[in-house]
Design goal:
The structure holds three protein chains of three kinds. Chain A has helices at 12-23, 54-67, 110-114, 153-157, 162-166, 216-223, 267-281, 301-312, 360-369, 408-428; strands at 4-8, 27-31, 46-47, 52-53, 71-74, 77-85, 88-95, 119-120, 129-130, 133-134, 146-147, 179-185, 187-190, 194-196, 213-215, 244-251, 286-291, 315-318, 321-326, 331-338, 341-346, 349-354, 356-358, 396-398. Chain A is of the alpha/beta class. In chain C, 31% of the residues lie in helices and 21% in strands. A five-stranded parallel β-sheet of chain C has the order 8-7-6-12-23, with helices on one face. In chain C, strands 14-21-15-16-17 form a five-stranded parallel β-sheet. Chain C is globular. The chains are: A alpha/beta, B alpha/beta, C alpha/beta.
Chain lengths: 431, 263, 625
């Protein structure tokens, strides 16, 4: 039998791990929960500190990963059971019914126009709607449609059936059933990534209450040309574009009171990038970043922040901040203090750098796999100094944000590192 | 009318950029959104050392207003020593441009590393302005100038100049077959005088291609003393590159020997 | 995906060119009139198909290319989008999957070289895009299909540097089954870490912590250790390097290796002339302080000041060194917890015990707390108690900082713990640098209190300067030997900051650890394993395909003068038995120096011929039609 490895999670860390393994001649089963691989990086507009277009640099890797002769990319699927040990894991994968035949669908999108349902679009952070049959984003891999069975009129009420009529290739199949695949692998890499914490419970920021308070991921989608507003920054209250924006850092993080005492490690740079992009879109836009410590501490990061100050006119204020609202125009007011004196300032729009938390499902997955999670839900390495990415279970390795805050290059390095460990384990087992 | 077209004229600049440093620097410049004028059209090559004088002179002959060469910083060449030769060749190119009458400022060599995006934008902005000040290339309209550029191009392809520039690094660093190391300044002088000679010889061949010319006539067109022209003709006749035509009266004329009818 | 057999383009066949113009979302489309550019492309000679895509690199863009190749019988493909430096392989692979030789693909860069640099001049940017495509068409018409040479890869690795990242890389490659040469110029393995006191807030000494790794590397049957040795020469190319390794003062021996990992580490910046360093006795660097602690030779102290960002972040060095805040915090906690254990023998025997803050009986409890991984107990007991255990009022630790870089989970919680232990964190700015001076035989620090807007002076017994990691001074030598680049700060420059963090642009050479920039031990180890994975790939595969970019000698023109042999930096040319030049294709890297030099014009470059370059350049001079 050819040696195989399972990678759980198709974000940039999982993609890198898969490519490293597949290039070495191993078979890779990449299990991704959503309909497309790409993960969070595919959702970003640009990446710091080069302002490279995120999807542009990721798309080739996604395509490469999907079409590699040694990979088997199983999207819209979840791991539901694991038995065995290193060298001989038996993994049960639930392949959810897509109701669309992947081999027939070309992603042409004609069905989209005919679908009457409107569903909150998670990919766009809820800023817009999608149809019940959908493709999460334009560069999705595989480029096939998925029917969301909870919102499909045909599947819920046995009405409609428009998409089947619209599809010239006969790709729609309402009879499709969930399948359970059994896969044998020698090693497993877990790279399930992060979620964005909902800041509604932290009422001091007014998210959910004040319309013009956004989360950083919402803003990221807004400023993305392929996003819901086609790259225009818009206030929720009046669709006007802001001229004065505030970015508030460490919302829900570095804050033991709400249970996230850790630092997310990427938001300082993220906010800096977002304010630079704003200025690139509109010459007259002014951004202010309220921060605790400006953690710009990787290669070229400090210089990036200095450039934001110098060339993009970004103002940095070292202070905690909370948000109130001038109800007249729905203008958020940021309350902060400098030198022990409380101050307030009105803005058109506020962006909150909310905590990035491990995916909820990661805890369940950890239980299935017998892995340890820390008190915040991050997967724990068995030896954090000499064996980062190794776990208490031989043959199971970690990569990416699921194992703790990491930016893109760190996640990529961890993906490669996990691949190395899987190959070591297989070689040691006499494979 | 002429003034109107002058006002609308935009410099046309060809950039030869090496893949590893200057092209990458230009990429970074784009990624960082440093803005610059739209006049440069880049041609990617693997290394700046690929750019022979012929490529540059031929482009200038074809009417380019400027040529920008971009390479890695000395010492950083992806191909170890490629840019060293580039530097030497650019020196030769500039000498030949001087000889031909084209402003050497139309050619610029710059080192841009993969991390110098901003520098790239500054160089393009600056060079575009420099070429703008020089005005449109006169090569297309001025036939005499064109034949001089053609001669410069031919001279750059001569065995003597190519071998001298190609062997310079070894001559200076390792010495010749007799183990005599050459003083770089001395070698530059040798190359300079060879450049002048080869240019003048190429120009004689260029001018005598279409019709036979007398020494006096050549001297006048070339603005070179007749005794010097005569010496060149003697050398060219020895190499069987030029032939004496039937003298008209007392004045011998010379015509370029075209091999295989190619030229 | 079905890979069709590659069809050869008959060289006499007329070019049938397809042009795909990418909008790249709004990255190009926002600044260039893409539809008019695509329309224009249709008018160019030999162009039989031209279209625009929202994202040519997305799967639908790629299938558009494949379909068009088949449907319109294209024998040349041009994509006008971003940079060939990242995307050429993708489009070339797409062409190949549709049966078109990848050397018949032409890339036109209208993003980095056009839309992004002419964001405010849509008309001119559009005109330039058209010019660039016209140039691409001129080039494409002259392209010829090429075949690539397959080169075998020697399944032996070389790791340069025996610090933690180098050892991790070597151990990983060895565990994967590849023989590895590990070269370390010092007599011991362990690099920078071996001289430190401890790593993170752990009980174990640093040496104790990395001992298992050193033992593994030393004992591994697949690892050949070259201690006290350095790499003297590197020749060859991916899969086939010949590396000269010599022990100090000894003779160089040659080894054949397939891939190379560079992990040469970094040094601590020496703050000569800053904050009284080398001027006052008790001013030390962070690493020197750790050594004092490790050797248990601390003088008696009542007050210690750490000054962060000494010489970094826009001062002597422009960058942030990433690790110093966390190292300082660790040391601050060490002082708070273990001050007594680190005292010199004399101090211990003296009468200072009553001044020592941490009660002896508390040690066990401290140990207990430290065994739990994080500072915050979940059961709610503790915080108040912890303060009691911290430094007493008698020992004061102050960290003067600009921003505390306690990123992530571990570092931030350690930072919190330090604050719970009453370590003071005072922020300063570049406008008000702290000053260190001696007054009445007492070391003092003056600083600007940002909240009170007042200058304050405090007496201290010791000042610890947190200086940045700096590149090895001889990194340049290795950089030249391997032909891999250094960035502006002298650290090695990876192929792509985001997606290729441990690769060099040159295939076959990889990078890990602090030689590419400051990193903590976890990151350095991760990079070591990552570089091992990357380096193992060509070895596991057993071969690489060499790009068809080499010199070609026209035997009829060559006179055997030998100038090309002199200029070739790779020894890729030799004289054959007929006395004329011959190219060793596997060794040729395609720089073109020989071609530009050849006095007879007998050498040209595959895929970069004079005719192609001139056609491309001259097309730019034509007026748009």
């Amino acid at each position: 039998m050819e040696k195989a490895v399972m990678v759980i999670g198709g974000g940039v860390a999982g993609i890198q791990a898969s490519l490293d393994l597949a290039d070495k001649g191993l078979i890779v089963h990449l299990v991704e929960k959503t309909p497309s691989i790409g993960g969070r990086m595919a959702q970003l507009d640009k990446t710091f500190p080069t302002n490279d277009c995120s999807i542009c640099i990721l798309a080739p890797k996604m395509a490469d990963c999907f079409s590699h002769p040694n990979t088997n990319v199983i999207t819209y699927s979840e791991v539901i059971g694991v038995e065995g040990s290193v060298g001989n894991f038996k993994v049960k994968v639930l392949k959810k019914a897509r109701y669309v035949d992947e081999s027939k669908c070309t992603g042409c999108g004609e069905c989209l126009e005919k679908c009457p349902s409107k569903v909150v679009n998670d990919w766009e952070m809820g800023l817009t709607t999608r149809k019940a049959i959908y493709i999460p984003f334009m560069q999705a891999v595989p480029r096939v449609m998925t029917i969301d069975k909870e919102h499909c009129l045909k599947l819920t009420k046995d009405k409609c059936g428009n998409c089947m009529k619209a599809c010239k290739r006969g790709a729609i199949n309402y009879e499709m059933k969930d399948q359970v695949l059994e896969v044998e692998v020698a090693a497993i890499i877990v790279a399930t990534g992060f979620d964005v914490w909902d800041p509604t419970p932290s009422t001091e920021y007014g998210y959910g209450r004040y319309p013009n308070v956004f989360t950083a991921m919402e803003y990221e989608r807004m400023i993305n040309a392929a996003g819901p507003t086609h790259g225009h920054i818009q206030r929720r209250s009046d669709k006007e574009r802001p001229r004065k924006m505030a970015f508030i850092q460490c919302v829900g993080s570095r804050n033991p009171q709400v249970g996230h005492p850790y630092c997310c490690a990427v938001c300082c740079m993220h906010a800096t990038k977002e304010s630079m992009l704003a200025r690139e879109h509109y010459d007259d836009i002014e951004s202010t970043i309220f921060y605790k410590d400006m953690r710009a501490c990787s290669k070229g990061f400090y210089e990036y922040v200095e450039r934001a100050k110098r060339d993009y006119g970004v103002r940095y204020i070292n202070s905690d901040a909370t948000v109130q609202e001038n109800a007249d125009k729905h203008n958020p007011i940021v309350v902060y203090d400098v030198g022990g004196r409380q101050q307030s300032e009105e803005f058109d729009l506020v962006v909150l750098a909310t905590t990035l938390v491990p995916k909820k499902e990661t805890a369940e997955l950890a239980k299935l796999l017998g892995l340890k999670v820390d008190e915040f839900g991050f997967l724990e390495s068995s030896d954090r100094i000499l064996g980062p990415g190794r776990t208490v279970k031989p043959g199971i390795y970690l990569a990416g944000y699921a194992a703790g805050p990491a930016d893109i290059p760190e996640s990529v390095a961890q993906g490669s590192s996990a691949a190395a460990k899987a190959v070591e384990a297989i070689a040691q087992a006499g494979g | 009318m002429a003034e109107a077209s002058q006002a609308q004229w935009e410099p046309k600049i060809i950039g030869f950029l090496c893949n590893w440093c200057s092209y990458a620097g230009a990429d970074l410049c784009g990624v960082s959104r440093y803005q610059y004028p739209t006049n440069v059209r880049a041609v990617r090559v693997m290394c700046s050392t690929r750019i022979s004088p012929h490529l540059v002179l031929d482009i200038l002959k074809a009417g380019a207003d400027g040529v920008l060469l971009g390479g890695c910083h000395i010492g950083d060449c992806h191909y170890i020593s490629g840019n060293y030769y580039t530097e030497k060749r650019v020196r030769l190119m500039k000498r030949l441009l001087e000889e031909s009458g084209v402003e050497p400022e139309r050619l610029r060599l710059e080192w841009v590393s993969a991390s110098e995006g901003e520098k790239f934008s500054k160089i393009v902005t600056d060079f575009t302005e420099q070429v703008r000040k020089l005005g449109p290339s006169k090569v297309k309209k001025d036939e005499k100038l064109r034949s001089r550029v053609a001669a410069a191009d031919d001279a750059s392809e001569t065995f003597r100049l190519k071998a001298l520039v190609g062997r310079e690094l070894n001559l200076v660093n390792k010495g010749n077959v007799y183990n005599n190391k050459l003083d770089p300044a001395e070698l530059d002088r040798i190359i300079d005088s060879a450049t002048e000679e080869e240019f003048e010889r190429s120009l004689i061949l260029e001018l005598s291609m279409s019709k036979p010319r007398s020494v006096k006539e050549l001297g006048e067109i070339m603005e070179v003393p007749t005794d010097k022209v005569l010496r060149h003709i003697v050398a060219l006749r020895q190499k069987n590159m030029i032939a004496m035509e039937h003298p008209e009266g007392f004045t011998p004329t010379y015509k370029t020997i075209v091999i295989g009818g190619e030229q | 995906m079905i890979h069709m057999a590659e069809t050869k383009v008959n060289e006499s066949e007329k070019p049938r060119i397809g042009v795909f113009v990418c909008s790249c979302g709004s990255n190009i489309g926002g600044f260039v009139d893409v539809p008019s550019v695509a329309d224009y492309a249709k008018t160019l000679p030999d162009v039989v198909y031209a279209t625009q895509n929202m994202y040519t690199c997305a799967e639908d863009g790629l299938s558009n290319i494949r379909e068009a190749i088949r449907k319109h019988n294209l024998n040349r493909v041009i994509v006008a989008s971003c940079t060939p430096r990242t995307h050429a392989p993708l489009f070339q692979a797409t062409c190949e999957s549709a049966g078109l030789n990848k050397y018949l693909f032409t890339f036109v860069n209208i993003r980095e070289h056009c839309s992004w640099v002419h964001m405010k001049e849509k008309d001119l940017a559009t005109k330039k895009s058209k010019d660039l495509i016209r140039m691409g068409v001129a080039r494409a018409r002259l392209l010829k299909p090429q075949e690539e040479a397959k080169v075998e890869v020697e399944p032996v690795g070389l790791v340069i540097g025996g610090g933690v990242s180098g050892m991790t890389a070597a151990a990983s490659l060895a565990d994967m089954g590849f023989p590895v040469h590990l070269v370390e110029r010092e007599g011991d393995l362990g690099g920078f870490v071996k001289i430190l006191n401890n790593l993170y807030v752990t009980e174990k000494s640093a040496a104790e912590t990395i001992k298992p790794l050193i033992e593994k590397v030393t004992a591994h049957k697949n690892i050949t250790l070259h201690l006290n040795s350095s790499v003297k020469s590197v020749e060859g190319f991916i899969g086939n390097y010949e590396v000269g390794i010599a022990p100090k003062g000894g003779e160089e021996k040659k080894y054949k290796v397939g891939t190379i990992v560079v992990a040469t580490g970094a040094l601590e910046f020496v703050p000569e002339g800053l904050y009284g360093y080398n001027q006052y006795p008790n001013v030390v660097t962070l690493t020197e302080f750790e050594i004092l602690c490790r050797k248990k030779t601390l003088p008696k102290l009542k007050s210690v000041a750490f000054i962060q960002c000494v010489g970094s972040r826009g001062q002597k060095m422009s960058y942030c060194s990433r690790i110093c805040c966390n190292v300082a915090i660790k040391n601050a906690i060490n002082i708070a917890d273990n001050y007594e254990d680190m005292l010199g023998v004399m101090e211990k025997q003296g009468t200072l015990v009553d001044k020592i803050p941490v009660e002896k009986k508390a040690t066990e409890e401290i140990l207990e707390r430290r065994r739990r991984r994080r500072g915050r107990g979940t059961e709610g007991e503790g915080d108040a108690e912890e303060v009691k255990l911290g430094p007493s009022e008698k020992i004061e630790v102050t960290v003067f900082n600009r921003d505390v870089m306690a990123y992530g989970v571990e570092h931030e919680l350690t930072y919190n713990k330090a604050r719970e232990k009453r370590v003071k964190f005072n922020r300063y700015t570049l406008d008000h640098l702290p000053k260190v001076f001696m007054e009445d035989n007492q070391l003092k620090v003056t600083y600007f209190h940002e909240t009170l807007k007042l200058e304050r002076t405090m007496p201290v017994d010791m000042v610890v300067l947190s200086t940045p990691l700096v590149a090895q001074p001889d990194a340049g030598d290795l950089s030249k030997m391997l032909k891999v680049p250094l960035g502006q700060e002298g650290f090695f420059l990876e192929a792509h900051v985001k997606l290729r963090p441990v690769d060099f642009a040159t295939d076959g050479i990889y990078v890990a650890g602090t030689c590419k920039g400051p990193a903590d031990i976890t990151e350095a180890v991760t990079q070591g394993a990552a570089a091992a994975s990357r380096a193992a790939t060509p070895m596991a595969k057993g071969y690489v395909q060499a790009e068809a970019l080499s010199s070609v000698v026209d035997e009829t023109k060559c006179t055997g003068c030998g100038t090309c042999i002199e200029v070739c930096p790779y020894g890729a040319l030799r004289k054959n038995e007929k006395g004329i030049a011959e190219v060793i294709v596997a060794a040729c890297k395609g720089c073109g120096c020989c071609g530009a030099t050849c006095p007879e014009g007998a050498i040209t470059m595959t895929n970069y011929t004079d005719a192609q370059l001139l056609a491309e350049a001259k097309a730019a001079l034509q007026e748009e039609v």
